[in-house]
Write the structure tokens for this entry.
Amino acid sequence: MSTMIDRLRTRRDATRRARAIERALRSATSPAVRDEILLIAQRYYG
């Protein structure tokens, strides 16, 4: 039971993180900021 809950939590966290990255990319003021956000996201997701 806890494994299923952990999977749901992990999926919810990943979705939340992806939405936050999308928001950050949309609100980026310059291409350099956008590149930094993408670099950080790539490091996080491996």
